[in-house]
Structure formats: C-alpha cells, structure tokens
Amino acid sequence: MSERKPPYPQRLVDMAMVNEKNQKGLPRAFLLASSRRADVAAEAQRLRPVVEKHVEVVLTDFTGTADLSSLEADLAIVFGGDGSVLRAAHQMGERQLPVVAVNLGRLGFLTNVSPEELPTILENFARGKLAIVEHLMFDCSILRAGEVLSRHLGLNETVIHAGTPFSLIDIDLYIDADLVTTYRCDGLIISTPVGSTAHSLSAGGPILRKDLQAFVVVPLSPHTLTNRPLVDSADCVYEMVVEKPSEGTTVVVDGQVVHRLQAGDRVRVSRAKARFKQAANPGHTYYRSLREKLGWGGRLKLDLGAL
After folding, report:
1. CA distance linking residue 208 with residue 153, whole number of Å
2. What is the pLDDT of residues 194-213, one digit of tens each?
3. CA 54 to CA 29: how far, in whole Å?
4. Residue 82 catalytic?
5. 11-130+280-293 under CATH 3.30.70.370, yes or no
6. Where are the domains of the chain?
7. pTM of the predicted model as reported, rounded to 2 decimal places
8. pLDDT digit string (tens) for 85-94?
9. Among the options 74, 82, 211, 254, which is catalytic?
C-alpha cells in the first residue's frame, strides 16, 4: 500500500535559519494563553522554567489580546484548550507561526501535547527534528451592496445564527455562484476539517481528516429532513445570503460574533492564504486522538458494582 501524502507536506524546522536570526542560538517563542481559568495561568508559570531551557521567551500574553502579527518569533507555545489555540491563531493573523499546543483544558482536539511531553517536544523543535503540519484556514468577508464591510481570518468555522426572536430563517447557499439550496433553519455552519470536531460535530456534521482540502456545510435544525451535511472542495467560494434576517441574526467566526446581518448582506467564505501550523506530536496519531477524546472504546464499559 502506497504511503498517503498530505496536500500540505510536513516539514522539519529549519534551525539554521532560526539561529541566523537569534544570537543566543535558541528558538524565540511566545508564551500564550487566553483562558479565564486562573489555574491555566498558574500552570503555565510553573512550566516556564522548563520552557526556558529550550527557547528564548520574547513575549508572554495570558490575556489573549496582544497583537502578534508584527512581532518576531519562531514558535508560539499555547497553554489551555482549543479556545486558547483559536485565539492565538487570530492574534498571529496572516503571519502564522508553528504552534506547540499544551493541553490544560478538557477535551482539546488542537491541544495535542501534555505538560509531561512538553520538554521533549521543545527539545526536538530546537534540534530541528520536529515536523510542522499545516492546516486549512479561511477568509470570511461580509459584503453589502458589493462592498466589503469586514474581513476575518478563521480556523474552525463561520456560522450564521438566526438569533432573537429565535424563529426559523431562510439562508441561501451559493457555491461558486451556483445556488445550492435555500435552508429554512436556525442557522448554517461552514467548517474546515479542523473545525469538523467542534460546533459542526455537535450539530450532526461528519468528521473530516484534518489535512483534507474541503469545507463541510451543516444546517442547524433544518425544517426539511432531507437537508443533510454537505462536503465540497476548499477551492470553491461559498456564499450565504439571508434576505429576511431576524433582529438578532449574526455572523460568528470561531466562536466570536463579528457582524449583525441586514437584509441582503452576503457572507463569503473561501480558502485563506495563511495556513495554521501545528507542531506534530509523534506519539499522537490522528485516529488515536479521535479514539481517546471521543471515547471510541469499542466496548461498553459498565460499573457492575453500581448495579
């Protein structure tokens, strides 16, 4: 059986380039977290001496508010859960750095490194032996009368929520300017493969392998039972139009409300030039992560003592 090649090839860290920019000979790193939990910041501070054995910390931001788009570094070390990783990706903007995501949250599909594994991961990064895997990101643009009102870079999904007064709305979906259908629903999700294990999954969408070049469209509580999730190419342009939005109909990108829709506004989603760059953890394969995080045990585990 031939080996499967990802569309974005994995690459090793070029430490010669890193060292050329860094007189100390250590990779430069951001320490990031945006969790409201005090224990996350405390654990990140506890791990800081371990981190500083392998990298030079050039910025620490545990608020999730620093603009990282123009700062120089070689990687971002993110503590917390998937929300912290999403926030870090937004902070970096078009200049995405490799992310070492340390799981201090609960489920964490993006946080693939445990605190115990962190020293080995950083050592491999510093030695140029850590693979960096790139993933699809998207641009979400809001258009009114042909003009772009706002543009947002995202990693997980764009969602139109019907909002208050919580009645069904009609959402027209176009793919490459071709009308797909009009959904009568509570909302519509357009998700990347990375986001397919987030809101999309809870709405009944499929799980897409993270290196697929595709988007998944998932209606929220559709009134027509034949409206099913749809998967199409990431090279297509997706547009959603709500001709009669409710008072509270909004656009949400990666969990953040970015716009309140007016009649006829167009929400356009397409592949971004930027790519999310994640440091691979050799001990965590794709299906191992799904198996462990989703509880795919294969057998029903019963506590017979409780019966």
Report:
1. 20
2. 999 999 999 999 999 999 99
3. 10
4. yes
5. no
6. 11-130+280-293, 137-274
7. 0.89
8. 999 999 999 9
9. 82
